[in-house]
Specification:
The structure is a single chain. By secondary structure, this protein is of the alpha/beta class. The protein contains 20 helices and 12 strands. A hairpin with a 6-residue loop joins strand 5 and strand 6. Helix 7 packs parallel to helix 10, helix 8 runs antiparallel to helix 9 and helix 10 packs across helix 11. The longest helix has 19 residues.
């Protein structure tokens, strides 16, 4: 079968339905795995279902690879989407996996940065994050266009056969602060530019936020299919989401309190959870989503019950469900103001915090060190800075054979200075100017150079246990303090770190135009 979902997703003829399957740890033949395999077999026979999506080590746990289940599903005549994440493989491993998927007919890929590992053989696995989701999208799109690689003869280039990937991405509309939310939307535009053709948002239970995402896409002319994420809750899972234990999954205190009441029922709240999911389905369909993406379902009977209940709600006005489906977090930020008539987003009005700019609100992350770094950059490291050409000449001289001692002396002092001020890891391909002088190698657990991952919670990093702010939250605040809304942090080419520059002088690489920022000299 032709497994490419492009025509189906972009036809806009009907409201589509996909479901997410999470694989298990261990061999597929064991008892623990048979439940998900039997469930997949049942789903593959269901004509109401358009595709089945299979996760890649979901939640940071090791599980059997998604293509095993994918082959079985495709053999049964159903479309698949395979998740591909950056946490467990470097760029070579990801490219190798992509060639494997292309060869086996898995053309629909959901490109993700991935959840930070929480488990592994004999303790937690060391994550990779050699590239991020934007870099992965760019690589896969380059493969679609015919990847150029080095030929066997020096100086030659070989263009490989084109792949036919249909690429998706994630975004979180459920962030609490302006910095988190705006950066999520800016990164979404970045992902679409890099090659994403469809969107599966992360999880939340605030329909106004879901409507806001749709409003943002329309306002920015981003005509990309987007699927409403519906996860059938349970009391235990709701509690886990509420505590922020699963990155990108949000349940408010109010919704949790309601669930605590519902679970006292004889059926432990099952009827409520089925009904809630069905109402979400009706709302996503009514507001104009391309389809629904259903998760949290492990039995075919539950899947069928949700669809049966959703069918009952076809005769209802989905707007009647808005109050019940709106469960915001405390002090949650909205990109758009409230439309009081329908209690959703007002496409004509931005949030007043975005419009009424006040420097005092963003000054928390503007340190003396940042001000000093801006000054030094404007004098020396900017490509139009007054000292750039003299320093370029100096570093060019230091590259000579007779200056090894001076070169090492300068490099030593550079390392000491940058380590003290920026906690520099000496990558040699510096992204400090890209992220308001915050080092992604030392200050971001996932080394995110192309915008934030979706896992931050209440402005804080999902990984660090000491309450560190996400560097992209700090970067947004710093950038807006000086630039207001004039300059987006992601209006630049995708950054993929040049690992050949590791343990070399970042200053020399800057002045001699060897790092990724050299493109600016052509602007």
């Amino acid at each position: 079968m032709n497994n490419n979902l492009k025509d189906l997703f972009e036809s806009k003829e009907k409201f589509l339905l996909g479901i997410e399957l999470v694989t298990t740890r261990g061999i597929a033949q064991q008892k623990n795995s048979q439940g998900v395999i039997s469930f997949a077999d049942e789903l593959a026979k269901d004509n109401t279902l358009n595709w089945i999506s299979i996760t890649d080590n979901a939640g940071g746990n090791p599980m059997f690879a998604p293509d095993y289940l994918g082959k079985r599903i495709m053999e049964n005549g159903k479309h698949t989407i395979i998740h591909i994440a950056c946490k467990d493989f470097n760029r070579n491993g990801l490219e190798s996996m992509a060639w494997k998927y292309a060869s086996e007919g898995f053309n629909n890929l959901l490109a993700l940065s991935g959840d930070y590992p929480i488990d592994g053989y004999n303790n937690i696995a060391q994550p990779v994050f050699d590239i991020d989701s934007v870099g992965l999208l760019k690589m896969l799109e380059d493969m679609n266009n015919g990847l150029n690689i080095k030929g066997r003869k020096p100086g030659t280039v070989v263009t490989l056969d084109k792949t036919d990937f249909y690429l998706g991405c994630a975004v979180s509309p459920f962030k609490t602060s302006e910095a988190e939310q705006v950066m999520q939307y800016e990164k979404l535009k970045y992902k679409i530019k890099a090659g994403a053709k469809f969107i599966v948002p992360q999880l939340g239970y605030n329909i106004r936020k879901s409507h806001e995402l749709l409003t943002y896409l329309r306002e920015n002319n981003l005509n990309v299919p987007v699927f409403g994420n519906i996860y059938k809750l349970s009391p235990v899972v709701a509690g886990i989401f509420n505590k922020g234990m699963i990155p990108g999954c949000v349940v408010s205190d109010d919704l949790l309190a309601r669930i605590d009441k519902e679970k006292q029922a004889e059926d432990k709240g099952k009827k409520f959870f089925i009904d809630y999911a069905a109402k979400q389905y009706a709302a996503f369909k009514g507001m104009g989503y391309s389809g629904a993406y259903l998760g949290g379902v492990a039995k075919y009977d539950d899947f069928a019950e949700i669809l049966e209940k959703a069918e009952e709600y076809k005769s209802h006005d989905w707007r009647d469900f808005v109050p019940e489906l709106t469960s915001p977090l405390k002090n949650e930020f909205y990109f758009y103001s409230l439309n009081k008539e329908n209690q959703l987003s007002d496409a004509e009005n931005k949030n007043s915090r975005l419009v009424d700019y006040k420097k005092s609100f963003y000054s928390k992350h503007v340190s003396f060190g940042y001000r000093f770094s801006r000054l030094v950059h404007s004098l020396a490291f900017g490509y139009k800075a007054p000292l750039f050409k003299p320093l370029k000449f100096r570093f060019k001289i230091l590259e000579g054979k007779g200056f090894r001692g001076w070169r090492n002396f300068c490099y030593f002092h550079e390392r000491m200075t940058k380590a003290a001020i920026f906690s520099c890891k000496d990558c040699g391909d510096c992204s400090l100017p890209d992220i308001t002088y915050l080092c992604p190698e030392s200050q971001c657990a996932k080394n995110q150079r192309n915008g934030p991952c979706g896992g931050s919670f209440l402005d804080k990093c999902e990984v660090t246990k000491n309450g560190k702010y996400c560097i992209w939250v700090k970067a947004y605040s710093r950038n807006k303090y000086f630039n207001k809304d004039k300059e987006c942090l992601l209006q630049r080419p995708v950054v993929i770190k040049n690992n050949e520059l590791q343990d070399t002088s970042g200053w020399a690489n800057c002045f001699l135009l060897r790092d990724h920022n050299a493109y600016k000299t052509k602007e």
